[in-house]
Design brief:
- The complex is a heterodimer of chains A (386) and B (387).
- In chain A, strands 3, 4, 5, 6, 7, 8, 9 and 10 form an 8-stranded mixed beta sheet that branches. Chain A has a 4-stranded antiparallel beta sheet with strand order 2-11-1-12.
- In chain A, 44% of the residues are buried.
- In chain A, 57% of the residues lie in helices and 15% in strands.
- Chain A has 2 domains: 177 residues, no CATH class; 202 residues, no CATH class.
- In chain A, helix 2 packs across helix 9 and helix 2 packs antiparallel against helix 14.
- The longest helix of chain A has 37 residues.
- In chain A, strand 8 and strand 9 form a beta hairpin.
- Chain A is an alpha+beta fold and 386 residues long.
- Chain B has 387 residues and is an alpha+beta fold.
- Helices cover 49% and strands 20% of the residues of chain B.
- In chain B, strands 1, 2, 3, 4, 5, 6, 7, 8, 9 and 10 form a 10-stranded mixed beta sheet that branches. In chain B, strands 11-12 form a two-stranded antiparallel ribbon.
- In chain B, a hairpin with a 2-residue loop joins strand 6 and strand 7.
- The relative contact order of chain B is 0.20.
- Classes of the chains: A alpha+beta (386), B alpha+beta (387).
- Chains A and B meet through helix 2, helix 9 and helix 10 of A and helix 2, strand 2, strand 3, helix 8 and strand 11 of B.
């Protein structure tokens, strides 16, 4: 600790150089904070999904396969299932918009038993259950769009040959933004039958079910799939977390890509920092010789140099973490449906890891100059004119 | 004008510092060019897919082929429209197709993702750019066979020659691999129209009609006719426009790429500045001498900027070269327009490499500017006295 003051003085001697190194480390580690923050978010997300004991029944062939509506009742009757609803992606376009947002046809009586952590005012729920063309919307999404209770929401069918004329009768509050709209599955079904679109009728799309106990999930998934295995529409049942993972998987090996970039950044930074440290030490050759002449041991000289390089890199790392964290928070505020967690929710070991990386960069980058300084011959050092 | 040799020699004398800076820059340029090459590859796959004279006919309101559905009789009517191009045998270049999505496991635990299976007629092959079989043979209709591309076989389980794909409990045997100039068709599995609709238990179902028109004039006529004629009531859009709209996935990757490149470049800029400041500080006496023998401030500024740019460009070139082994490497991601896999190859073309070198140039210019300014502000007399 006695050395710290000396290290600090050394680090602040060439303020320009140290600042540049710190900024270089800070900017690159800010990038790493954002990238690893993204990975951390996915982790938090799937852990979130695990706590609610929900399972998803899909056609074995994937989204485009049919899940007959009768399956909902059959799943619902199975022991260990608390509630089950159809959950059919409508994918309609709103007014002149090109890209559809999330709209699902479901069962108004049961859906809030499956998503029991979502909150809706009882009178709004009653209003929805009573109104065949009614729909409920994620409160944050409704606010973002400026929709009020009573808003007419026409949705033009893309996949289904039927247009929905919906009226918003309530909003529900979800822990994380979902950007979803729920309407009556029956309304869509009747519409399809009236249009004689029998091929797409009778399809629940997917069945979402709430399981009573977490330890029953694996067994239930298996027995649901066994039940329908020999039917025309075999199913694949998985946990909500595994289902969400499918979308992550679709993007491809993003994780590997992020890690590779992280590695390149680390190498690059080590070189930059090592360069700066080597330049500093070259200018101080005489000084190091003097230190050794007055009795500083090799180890101490080594520590002095390593201490300085670590200090500089750690400061850069902390600043980088702050910039990166701020950036994540901005993304969270501006696009909550893609980035539903604030930086506070995601805080964890990975942040320490970023700082650890910074210190590691400091250590490695200081190593060569430090060993050189420690091994410097006193006589030569004193003789050398810089 | 100070000769460039002066700068080259300086870089060589301080070779350790130069090497470290060059390597640092090279890594940054490498990572950025990688991101740019990814976007370029994806865009290329979607670009070559679209032919100016090709139309995709689907149901009004449909956004993509998978969500479209046309009645069979209506689809057969489309084939008879005037203005459709003819092939060498006088047959209309028009293909009635059924598109569906299957969930299949990727190799090496890459997760289970969607892939497009397309049931089509023989005529559809001529509508894809440069379609040719490269291994095995083409399918025979009626016996449940399928063909796909080598990239797909490399990415998915069950797509080797002789493997069977299960579609609603009907086994389709993979009998061949095709190429189509790296277009989006190479991300699909093809089989016979009737075999596929029968397996899906939707006999007679049609998703889209793909056709080639004879010329621009008949293109407009056909689009008009399909849109307004009550008999059809369909939507026809140019293939190019259709695939342009699917570039959303690549836009996201591009934004991420620019973001990464931006942060890294700024970080590396500080590193370059550090090196140049040291170079200026260590050469005070030289700068003084140059001033004393009559070099103007302007040429000294230029000389130091040049040195900095040279330093970073070396790194840039090295970084670009380091991406070369990855050129053509096949990869894949989700096409969010169809929710299914699209395969493509990294492409480091001239435009992409130029972007990488531009990054290096910017690093050198901005990183070298302040040190160079410091160099010309030195007082000649004091500088000459420096050690």
């Amino acid at each position: 600790m006695k050395l710290f003051k000396y290290i600090w003085r050394n680090a602040t001697r060439n303020k320009l150089r140290s600042s540049l190194t710190i900024l270089s480390v800070a900017f690159s580690l800010a990038l790493m904070t954002v990238l690893y923050g993204y990975l951390a978010m996915q982790n938090v997300w799937s852990n979130e999904a695990k706590t609610h004991n929900r399972i998803v029944v899909l056609n074995k062939q994937g989204f485009s396969g049919k899940v007959p509506i009768a399956y909902v009742d059959r799943v619902r009757r199975m022991p260990g299932i608390k509630a089950a609803v159809p959950y059919s992606w409508f994918g309609g376009t709103y007014k002149d918009e090109q890209a559809p947002f999330a709209q699902f046809g479901t069962d108004a009586k049961e859906v809030f038993n499956v998503w029991n952590e979502y909150v809706i005012a009882p009178e709004q729920l009653a209003a929805w259950q009573a109104n065949r063309q009614g729909c409920v919307v994620d409160s944050r999404f409704a606010e973002q769009r400026g929709w009020k209770i009573g808003e007419k929401i026409p949705l033009k069918g893309t996949y289904y040959q039927f247009d929905l004329q919906l009226e918003m009768v309530g909003v529900f509050k979800a822990p994380q933004p979902t950007g979803s709209l729920w309407f009556h599955w029956d309304y869509l079904e009747e519409g399809l039958k009236s249009k004689n679109a029998l091929l797409s009728a009778g399809n629940a799309g997917a069945v979402y079910a709430k399981v009573e106990r977490a330890d029953a999930i694996a067994g239930l998934c298996q027995s649901i799939d066994d039940k329908f295995a020999s039917s025309d529409n075999p199913t694949r049942t998985q946990t909500e977390a595994a289902f969400a993972q499918m979308f992550t998987d679709m993007v491809g090996n993003i994780q590997a890509y992020i890690r590779n970039i992280g590695l390149a950044v680390m190498f690059s930074l080590t070189l930059v920092a090592a360069n700066a440290m080597a330049m500093s030490m070259r200018e101080r050759t005489t000084e190091v010789a003097v230190l050794k002449a007055i009795g500083f041991s090799r180890g101490r000289v080594l520590n002095l140099v390593l201490g300085e390089s670590c200090l500089i890199a750690a400061i850069g790392g902390l600043i980088g973490l702050a910039i990166g964290g701020g950036f994540l928070q901005v993304i969270h505020k501006s696009a909550p449906q893609y980035f539903p967690f604030s930086i506070g929710d995601m805080a964890g070991g990975w942040m320490l890891w970023i700082v650890g990386v910074a210190v590691g960069i400091g250590l490695v980058s200081g190593l060569v100059p430090a060993v050189r300084a420690a091994q410097l011959s006193v006589v030569n050092g004193l003789r050398r004119v810089v | 004008m100070i000769p460039i040799k002066y700068n080259v020699r300086n870089l060589r004398v301080r070779w350790m510092t130069t090497l470290m800076t060059v390597l640092g820059t090279a890594l940054v340029v490498w990572a950025s060019v990688l991101a740019f090459g990814l976007t370029d590859g994806l865009n290329h796959a979607l670009d070559v897919t679209g032919d100016k004279l090709d139309l995709i006919v689907m149901r009004k309101g449909s956004q993509d082929e998978g969500s479209s559905g046309i009645e069979q009789q209506v689809a057969r009517q489309v084939v008879t429209l005037p203005g459709i191009a003819r092939d060498a045998h006088g047959q209309p270049m028009c293909s009635v197709e059924f598109v569906t999505i299957l969930t299949q496991p990727r190799r090496a635990n890459g997760g289970t993702v969607n892939l497009i299976v397309r049931g089509m007629e023989q005529a559809g092959r001529a509508l894809r750019p440069g379609f040719k079989l490269v291994e095995g043979r083409d399918i025979k209709p009626g016996v449940n066979e399928a063909i796909t591309s080598k990239q797909m076989a490399a990415r998915f389980e069950n797509l080797d020659l002789g493997d069977k794909i299960d579609i609603n409990k009907v086994d389709f045997t993979v009998v061949g691999y095709f190429e189509a100039e790296g277009s989006a068709a190479e991300s699909e599995v093809w089989t016979d129209l009737r075999d596929l609709t029968n397996a899906r238990r939707t006999p007679g179902a049609v998703s889209v009609v793909n056709l080639r028109v004879a010329d621009e004039a008949s293109k407009q006529a056909i689009i008009e006719r399909l849109q307004t004629d009550q008999q059809f009531g369909l939507k026809a859009i140019g293939e190019q426009a259709y695939y342009d709209e699917q570039k959303t996935a690549s836009i996201a990757i591009r934004i991420v790429g620019y973001f990464i490149a931006g942060f890294l470049t700024v970080g590396a800029m500080f590193g370059a500045a550090n090196t140049m400041y040291a170079a200026v500080a260590g050469r005070a006496r030289e700068i003084g001498t140059l001033r004393a023998i009559g070099f103007r401030r302007r040429s000294i500024l230029f000389s130091f900027l040049l040195e900095s740019v040279l330093l970073c460009l070396l790194g840039g070139v090295l970084g670009c070269l380091a991406t070369m082994p990855l050129n053509g490497l096949s990869t894949g991601t989700a096409n969010w327009a169809t929710f299914s896999e699209i395969t493509f190859s990294f492409r480091f073309g001239p435009a992409v490499l130029l972007q990488g070198l531009t990054l290096a140039l910017v690093m050198g210019l901005i990183g070298g500017l302040f040190p160079a300014l410091r160099a010309i502000r030195l007082n000649t007399a004091t500088a000459l006295r420096a050690q």
